[in-house]
Structure prediction request, 469 residues.
Amino acid sequence: MLFRSRFSVLLPTPAASGPYEVAVTAGKDTQTLHDVLVGDVWLGSGQSNMEWKCGWLANCEKDIAKATHPTIRLFTVRQRISAIPVDDVVGAWQECTPANVKEFSATAYFFGRSLQEVRQQPLGLVVSAWGGTICEAWTSEPGLKDFPEFTGAIGNVQRSAADTRSFAERAAGWWQKLAQLDPVVGGQRPEAAEFDDSAWSEVDMPHNWSKDKLSAFDGVGWYRTKVAVPAAWAGKELSLSLGAIDDLDTVWFGGERIGATEEPGHWNEARHYRIPGRLVRGGETVLAVRVVDTAGGGGFISDAETLRLTPVQGEAGGIGLARKWRFTKGAAMGALGAMPPSQLDNPNEPTVLWNGMIAPLLPFPFRGTLWYQGESNRERAEQYGRLFPAMIQDWRRAFASELPFYFVQIAPYGYGNDKGELFDLRLAQTRAMGPQTGMAVTTDIGDARNIHPNDKQSRSEEHTSELQS
Prediction:
């Protein structure tokens, strides 16, 4: 019988510096973590203006091209709703490079870049954000104890927690049915390294179904390619980047599953998977990807430059994967039936984003917090004036730290029929000002025609001078 448990080890660490290797030994087994930096880590959260990526900004090409900072590391938490606090998140640490910054939060990156220019130390940035979300979704149940208006909604969330197990069982059955319909040749499944894919067609990667004859097909697509792994990479951990995949994917390297995105709602998120060193051998290795398009478009929908295999320790360039791959269609959605729906599917319910995207980060010792949110609470300014400070205190209680909390006062935008709600919300945000807080005012750099103002830089330097110590 297998038991799952959690434990922690306190280690003395040097001053901010690196990179280091950390070896963990248990009996005869040793696992080594490579390229480990020591430095401050900041948490960025909120709604779409925090989520907004550098690559989505106009006229940001020069900043992206210069974004080579080996001692800045980036981590994006995959979006997840949960009725109960969970203990893990999906994501991967990445070195700050132009390709990775393009897919990372602009607000967090420009803050981090400015801070490192001042401090000249390694820096980590973790972003856990979801566009269009409300403040109470990011607050725990204890943090909402003084808000009786949320009692009913919290009760609905708690009742849906009972559905969690049955949903997991239904989902597992659906994936099992899908696997039974996968193409098998000579007793070999298509992810197996020995599988014969010679009868499959060839497609140019990235393969966007909306631009191909598959635009009307919803279902499963299988991809395979052979990768010539340099002998010098043997035993090294690798990073596999595949760009965004619409909708779901499962990935195998050398016949062993190394990662998956099998929950709906992540069709526009870049995929980054780690390949453990024990699987990496010099010579030819098969990479297999199963894509499931549940509706609409499908396939690999990012640019060719996003498909790349690179050692985590970072030999320059790596191996580009934008070339011809083998491909075949699998089962159609009509044969599979719809994926089982989860009873909880709304990110705008009290506690659900705290449960799914903040609670699993505990008890990480963040240096401070960046927050950009408020638009979705705009019409409840009086409540927000109490709710936002309560959320800050809730986070500090949970992290057992008087976390510095820096936030953006929402920028001007031409809301239809605005009767002063925008002004009231800005005023409510100021009520969160107190010890260890800072507010960036953006009334002079917004855009009344764009709720996502393009200028994410002008205030990024304002708070760095006070963080030098």
About this structure: The longest helix spans residues 381-399. The mean pLDDT is 91. The radius of gyration is 23 Å.
